Q: What sequence folds into this?
């Protein structure tokens, strides 16, 4: 949705009434791009591309595209709408539009944007550079180029590209959206300025409120972002990311019951391991270990399927969850199993974790407690020896080992550990 010289040339020769309609639409949507002067139906479609829920975008834009399958503009506006929701199909529609109108710089920039959204940074960089050779002030291409430079850790050209993009089209949706991501990562106050512009010029866009909410949640008072998350979800209940982000914010605010509701909504459209993991954490915090256990089992199962392993095997090579979250899923599952009385499963989980991380204190602590419950004191002592070596100033480990020594009639060692525990409790170490 970039202003170029092309629409102004298209206005020449139009009836006065059509010019008035085009200018009125341009005023309301100041950077509406290639559809600025198209048919009323196409102009309406371009408005829908950013101001509507994805389900409405797909239905209405597809209806127009079915009537005009060989229209470069209709294919582009479909790409525009889907790209704003990070839909991979946007690339296909953008490429079709470019094949129908290969000389269009605007469509070329849209192709670059869609490639960027799809994660193809090299292609996005190449297409944006090509667009800028023909039109050096094309704001969308500049913003895409800035994002690519930032991804390549080239800070100076990234900053320059975004500055030029915003100077060229300060109210463009995609330019501001990309700028928010860039300035947000660099902790620049301009992220909020861009977000405020989105809300001002696209007041019916769930994405606009969502972008501003994400910026505000980094504030010292993260609750200030909640009204914008609420507005985004009210405008588009199917905007899964908004539910996920609000759920995560509610967790930070210790409003875990509400967080579970948001994660439930998100799960209806995108049941990913990440969501299962997050919902499980909230369920544990509201004392629902059985439900949390179900989510954690499924999350680990999905991760392990990529390596054809069962959910009872720790797979460090899985690529679905970040390693930290995958490990935490195992630790939380072990904890939930202990809470609901599945001691054998918890012990098996601890053993699997310790095969990979021999010094995992959480797994060692859980395993020694389970071993003591099962009367396997000698094995429990081995784990406690490691825990004490890792952190010699924890009195609980000496008390536990003292108990284990007592059960084995090793009274001298038991007394020594008990004395050490009391000393730590009194003096701190």
A:
């Amino acid at each position: 949705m970039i202003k170029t010289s092309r629409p102004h040339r298209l206005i020449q020769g139009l009836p006065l009434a059509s010019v008035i309609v085009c200018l009125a639409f341009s005023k309301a949507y100041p950077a509406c791009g290639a559809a600025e002067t198209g048919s009323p139906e196409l102009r309406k479609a371009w408005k829908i591309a950013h101001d509507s829920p994805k389900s409405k975008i797909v239905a209405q834009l597809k209806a127009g595209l079915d009537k005009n399958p060989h229209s470069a503009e209709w294919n582009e506006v479909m790409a525009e709408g889907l790209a704003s929701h990070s839909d991979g199909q946007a690339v296909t529609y953008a490429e079709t539009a470019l094949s129908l109108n290969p000389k269009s710089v605007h469509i070329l920039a849209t192709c670059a944007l869609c490639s960027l959204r799809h994660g193809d940074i090299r292609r996005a960089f190449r297409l944006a550079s090509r667009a800028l050779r023909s039109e050096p002030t094309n704001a969308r291409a500049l913003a895409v180029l800035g994002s690519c430079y930032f991804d390549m850790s080239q800070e100076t050209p990234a900053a320059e590209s975004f500055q030029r993009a915003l100077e060229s089209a300060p109210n463009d949706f995609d330019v501001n959206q990309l700028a928010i991501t860039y300035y947000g990562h660099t902790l620049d106050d301009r992220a909020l300025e861009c977000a405020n512009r989105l809300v001002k010029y696209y007041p019916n866009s769930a994405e606009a409120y969502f972008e501003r909410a994400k910026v505000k949640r980094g504030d010292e008072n993260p609750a200030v972002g909640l009204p914008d998350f609420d507005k985004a979800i009210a405008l588009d209940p199917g905007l899964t990311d908004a539910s996920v982000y609000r759920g995560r914010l509610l967790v930070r605010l210790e409003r875990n019951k509400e967080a579970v509701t948001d994660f439930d909504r998100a799960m209806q459209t995108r049941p990913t391991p990440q969501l299962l993991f997050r919902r499980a954490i909230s369920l544990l915090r509201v004392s629902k270990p059985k439900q949390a256990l179900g989510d954690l089992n499924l999350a680990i199962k999905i991760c392990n399927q990529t390596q054809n392993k069962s959910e009872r095997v720790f797979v460090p090579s899985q690529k679905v969850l970040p390693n930290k979250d995958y490990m935490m899923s195992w630790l939380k599952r072990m904890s939930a199993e202990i809470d609901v009385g599945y001691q054998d499963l918890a012990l098996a989980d601890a053993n699997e974790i310790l095969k990979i991380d021999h010094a995992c204190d959480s797994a060692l602590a859980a395993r020694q407690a389970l071993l003591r419950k099962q009367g396997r004191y000698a094995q429990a002592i081995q784990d406690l020896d490691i825990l004490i070596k890792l952190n010699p100033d924890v009195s609980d480990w000496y008390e536990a080992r003292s108990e284990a020594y007592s059960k084995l009639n090793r009274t001298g060692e038991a007394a020594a550990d008990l004395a050490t525990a009391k000393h730590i409790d009194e003096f701190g170490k």
Observations:
- The chain has three domains: 1-183, 205-269, 271-357.
- Residues 1-37 have pLDDT under 50 and may be disordered.
